[in-house]
Every structure is written in C-alpha cells, then in structure tokens.
UniProtKB/TrEMBL annotation:
Protein name as it appears in the record: NUDIX domain-containing protein
InterPro entries recorded: NUDIX_hydrolase-like_dom_sf (IPR015797), NUDIX_hydrolase_dom (IPR000086)
Gene3D superfamilies: Nucleoside Triphosphate Pyrophosphohydrolase
Residues in Nudix hydrolase domain copies: 108-240
Listed SUPFAM superfamilies: Nudix (SSF55811)
Xref: Pfam families: NUDIX (PF00293)
Length: 243
C-alpha cells in the first residue's frame, strides 16, 4: 500500500489496489442481515422492477457482510444470510451503506499464460459481463459458522465451467482488491491445458449442462479493458496481473 492511498473504515485502499494477504476469518452470525428489515419496502419495490426486467431472476440466499476489516495482513468479516432481492437493492444505493459484499475469485491461468474467464448469459443478473467463474458465498458454503471461501470457489468453477480446481497448481497465496464496499479475494490456479483446450472444455460443459449460466469462455492476454465488457472487479486485477 502506498502512503497516498485513500483508505476507508475497512482499513483497505478504495482504489482496487491488489494486496497480498495471509488469511481471513469470515464469520456468519445467526439471523438475517439488518438491511432486510430496515429497508423492506424499498427492497420489495426494487425486486418487482428487477423481475419485470428479467423474469428469470431467482430470489435465493447469499452471505452479505455487515462489516469487513483489514487487520495486519488478515481479512476479518462478519455477515448474515440475506436474500438476493436485498443484495440487488443494496448494490444500487449510492455509497452502499449498511453492508459489504465479499466474494472469491479463482483466477484460472492456462499453460500458455492466458487468464480464462466466462461471459455471463443474458438471463443472469450480470448479463454479458466477463469475469472469472465465481459467485456470492451462499449458505451452503458456510462451515462451522464461517464462510468456506475455498469450497465456494471450487463449487462455482465446477458448476460454471466443468473444471476442477484440484487439477490446477496453486501456491496458495491470496490477494485482496477492494472498491466501494465490495471486496474480492482471489487466488491464482495454473492449469496444464492451453487456453484453447480450456475454452473447448468449458464450451462443451456449457452445451451439456442444463442451466445455461454462461454464454461463452474467454481467453484474456492483456490488460486492455476495451476488449470485453468486464465486471468492475476485473479491472484492477487485470492491470495488476499484466503490469
């Protein structure tokens, strides 16, 4: 972190700067996230708008953090179960008060140096966006009262791409990138297959699986942000990786 970096109450720089971290403790507390009750009417009204625009949306559940902090080189967070309608409302509110969103990014690296991402299908909440196969931490990812981020990343990659992270090599180093109440924790996974081979495997999986969550796979070989419609969380990561 540079001395000029702007840091908010989380202790993290707000410009997306990539920081190596040594570990995390992501507690999940009993009960529902406080924003559900505090903003119930606004959440319900927004959900009607979201469903009208995209009838395929499903109001499932995720773990939404109430607080995130960087202490030394450790990430600490506490969160609650919230429904997806609350999350979609919250991410539209300027400044995103009352919550933080934390998710894991498994960064897939091919044997020829490309980063392998997916393009989301039109019926998803992020239609057309390109990012690494990932998803919010869900109640199924909670083990003994804490978020199992490694399990979440493995599950999401397998569901969306058909690839198993157990095939890949990783040094286990975690990195954090934070911007506007949203924290990405990511890890590099190196596959022995080339970019063409990995993309062919992902496309085959996408054709065969019942739920068409992704529309295609993408090989990324530069930090040129104009090449795809990237999710905002991708920008700092690509600039860091291809620096």
């Amino acid at each position: 972190m540079t001395s000029s970096a702007v840091v908010d109450d989380t202790g993290l720089p707000v410009d997306g700067a990539v920081l190596p971290i040594d570990g995390y403790q992501l507690k999940v507390l009993e009960g529902r996230h406080p924003i559900e009750k505090a903003h119930a009417e606004a959440i319900a009204a927004n959900w009607q708008l979201e469903q009208r625009a995209n009838p395929s949306l499903y109001n499932g559940e995720l773990i939404l953090q109430e607080r995130i902090s960087l202490e030394g080189r450790q990430i600490h967070a506490r969160g609650y179960v919230a429904d997806y309608a609350s999350f979609l409302w919250w991410r539209k509110v300027p400044g995103r008060p009352g919550a933080c969103h934390l998710f894991g990014y498994p960064v897939l690296v091919s044997s020829d140096g490309a980063l392998i991402a997916v393009r989301m299908s039109d019926h998803t909440a992020n239609p057309g966006q390109v990012y690494f196969a990932a998803g919010s931490v869900e109640p199924v990812d909670v083990v003994a009262g804490e978020c199992d981020l490694a399990g979440n990343m493995a599950r999401e990659v397998l569901e969306e791409t058909g690839l198993s992270l157990s095939e890949a090599k990783t040094d286990g180093q975690l990195y954090a990138s934070y911007r506007t109440r949203r924290l990405t924790l990511f890890q590099l996974f190196h596959f022995s297959d080339s970019a063409d081979q990995l993309i062919a495997r992902i496309r085959k999986h996408a054709q065969e699986c019942g739920e068409k969550e992704i529309s295609d796979a993408v090989a990324i070989t530069s930090a040129d942000l104009s090449l795809h419609r990237y999710n905002p969380a991708m920008q700092a990561l690509l600039q860091w990786y291809f620096r």
